[in-house]
Write a structure and sequence with these properties.
heterodimer; A: mainly alpha; Cytochrome Bc1 Complex, Chain D, domain 2; 2 domains; 14 helices; 29% helix; 1% strand; B: mainly beta; 9-stranded mixed beta sheet; 6-stranded mixed beta sheet; 4 helices; 9% helix; 36% strand
């Protein structure tokens, strides 16, 4: 299983036939990707189809997926904000504040691991169960309401036909499994590679080109080659090193401490939000999070796992200093000295012009299509 | 569908399959009773219990469920023989859910205090079992799992598994004291498509050298579970013990379950006893 050549997974897709046991895809799926970008990994038991992606879109935006019917996935993952919510920390359907910031689900089909710092969650189908049924924190709040969920979906007159079309081989196509498979397929279809940056350097202004050079290892005005080092963690087609795709042969999960906090000599981050450490309990993992893709970064503020940096200007200041100093309060401490901080992050000199150039480049990563494409929009709006 | 899947899995592990399994003349049925108590009182969903833990805390308990697997009985020759569990809504593929709650917002009215199955005809005088779900069943697609592995309130999706034990107090407020136990420290791999290993399995092995199912009962005691735990406090971010390795509130509970925690090595479990 582990080293299944990717062609085995790809071939059936090319011929438009499902290879899983559960369904034959209706409406052959075509990836609309630039030559430079491989298709995402598609699990054998959940081949893509137009019908499934469309069903997944409805479910993604349907408030029937929350206990009190106030929230959908789309409440925290809004299209116009590149599928984020603009909040520092997400707010669940019962008002509970999530310790973390909502992530963009654009290109989530390419994640080597899902969410900010969890090496266990690698399948979108499984990840969807966390916001639906998680109790700590409550997001959609559906734990223990699986029967009610299926009842609501069955009673909605638009769904039975959509499920039958998306899962033609299933005798009883409305199930928790087909719900998570459809939502996962919709998210795999949320590919976003149509930004100004994707049209090549010639499409960029001089300022944007200078910013791009700095980002990808160029020498800064102070004469230091690769002064900024951004691309080491935010490189490749995804602009994240923690990438997976249908041809990946290695596990590229990555978790890094970028110096946001230092509460004590162990390098602690605030309790309950210590990143990889919360999984492994290894003090060396305190403050380690996934370096997220920087695609659409200009529209996904505020930044970092807890939304604690408001603007891109402040993000650049953070990296230029090589870590954040918090002078007082419960989180006081200098992230620059965090013992777990990556050795790439030692700070750098940056002129005002260079800063503007770098931010101008980061703004070229916005894919307007993603933000406005009606095929990805909320079908229940208006 | 459900039965077929389970049967196939049984065949795969070499337990009875197809026609062979109804050679009932050579097998006998066994019923193992479980009970949930809080000290000397029976557990009743929604009741208040006093003098719990290190600081004599009172708690209203509203959930009490756990999974068991690897149920074996000791024969006259001293060998451990697997009990082949029946298939029903509380048991699938060798895993059983013991369910003592009927009042929780996170539960249902159905109760179950029995593990039923069969073994080769003979005399048996000992019992052992493991609390938890085996790794191979813990980390597969929960959305297609048969009952009792399809209860979303026992999903433990942040680790891709199940809650092996769930005992709640409170209605989801700051003062709740909940105990949720499952495997932790799990890592996965996109190529494998799921969890590949967990640093802390957190499965509790229980053995009674002497156990006669016709007279004895396996008793799970909340008072023994929380002995030494400060239930009026929450040191770590979570309400109670969510089994996270950094959740220091878990220390005493893990000790009482005989599980290692942090630097503390595994000890002897005292949550379960035979009566």
């Amino acid at each position: 299983m582990k080293h299944l050549p990717h062609t085995l997974i790809l071939l059936p897709l090319l011929f438009g036939a499902g290879c899983g046991d559960s369904d034959t895809a209706s409406g052959a799926w075509v990836w609309n990707l630039p030559d430079t970008v491989p298709p995402p990994r598609v699990p054998e038991d959940n081949p893509m189809s137009e019908a499934k992606v469309e069903l997944g879109r409805f479910l993604f935006y349907d408030t029937k997926l929350s206990a009190n019917q106030t929230q959908s996935c789309g409440s925290c993952h809004r299209q116009e904000l590149a599928f984020t919510d603009g909040l520092a920390q997400a707010e669940g359907s019962t008002g509970e504040i999530h310790p973390r910031s909502s992530m963009s689900v654009a290109n989530s089909g390419y994640a080597a691991s899902l969410t900010w710092a969890n090496p266990a969650v690698v399948r979108l189908e499984e990840q969807a169960l966390v916001p639906m049924f998680g109790e700590d924190p409550v997001e959609l709040g559906m734990a223990n309401m699986e029967d009610e969920l299926l009842r609501r979906i069955r009673e909605d007159e638009r769904y039975p036909d959509m499920f039958a079309e998306a899962f033609p081989k299933e005798a009883d196509p409305i199930s928790l499994d087909s719900i998570t498979k459809s939502i996962a397929s919709f998210q795999r279809a949320l590919t976003s590679f149509n930004s100004k940056h994707d049209r090549g350097s010639s499409a960029l202004t001089l300022s944007e080109q200078r910013g791009k050079a700095l980002f990808f290892g160029g020498t800064n005005e102070a004469g230091v080659p690769d002064a900024l080092e951004c691309f080491h963690c935010h490189g490749g087609f995804l602009l994240s090193q923690a990438v997976d795709h249908d041809g990946s042969e290695f596990n590229q999960q990555t978790f890094i401490n970028n110096g946001l906090y230092k509460l004590d000599s162990d390098g602690s981050y605030p309790d309950g939000n210590q990143g990889l450490f919360d999984i492994t309990n290894d003090p060396a993992d305190k403050g380690k999070f996934k370096p997220p893709s920087l695609r659409n970064i200009a529209v996904t503020a505020p930044y970092m796992h807890d939304g604690s940096i408001a603007t891109l200007e402040e993000v650049v200041d953070h990296y230029a200093r090589g870590g954040r100093e918090i002078e007082s309060g419960p989180n006081a401490g200098d992230g620059f000295d965090n013992p777990n901080k990556s050795s790439f992050l030692n700070g750098f000199e940056i002129t005002e012009q260079e800063k503007q150039d770098l931010i101008a480049f980061l703004r070229t990563l916005t894919d307007e299509d993603l933000l406005t494409n009606p095929a990805l929009s909320d079908p229940f709006a208006q | 569908m459900k039965r077929l899947g389970a049967l196939m899995a049984l065949c795969a592990v070499g337990l009875g399959c197809g026609d062979d399994s109804n050679s009932s003349s050579t097998r006998q049925q066994v019923e193992i009773s479980y009970a949930a108590v809080v000290g000397d009182q029976p557990f009743v969903c929604g009741n208040r219990y006093d003098n719990l833990g290190a600081n004599d805390t009172s708690l209203v308990l509203s959930d009490f469920r756990f999974y068991v697997q690897n149920v074996d009985m000791k024969n006259a020759a001293g060998a451990w023989i697997p009990v082949e569990l029946d298939e029903n809504e509380f048991q699938t593929t060798g895993v059983a859910l013991l369910d003592f709650e009927d009042c929780a917002s996170m539960g249902n009215e159905d109760l179950n205090g029995l593990v039923t199955g069969s073994l080769p005809a003979g005399e048996y005088d000992g019992l052992r079992f493991t609390m938890g779900v085996p790794f191979e069943m813990n980390h597969v697609n929960h959305s297609t799992a048969p009952s009792p592995l399809n209860l979303t309130s026992l999903f433990w999706n942040w680790q891709g598994g199940y809650k092996f034990l769930r005992i709640d107090s409170g209605q989801f407020s700051e003062t709740d004291w909940r105990m949720h136990l499952g495997s932790t420290g799990c890592v996965g791999d996109a190529m494998a498509g799921g969890v590949t290993e967990c640093a802390n399995g957190n499965r509790v092995t229980v053995e009674f050298a002497s156990f006669d199912p016709s007279v004895n009962t396996v008793v799970a005691d909340y008072e023994a579970l929380v002995e030494g735990a400060a239930l009026d406090q929450n040191e770590a971010a979570d309400a109670g013990c969510m089994a996270k390795p950094a959740d220091t509130d878990c220390g005493p509970l893990f000790a009482n379950l005989g599980l290692p925690f942090g630097g503390t090595p595994a000890g002897t479990q005292q949550f379960f006893s035979a009566e």
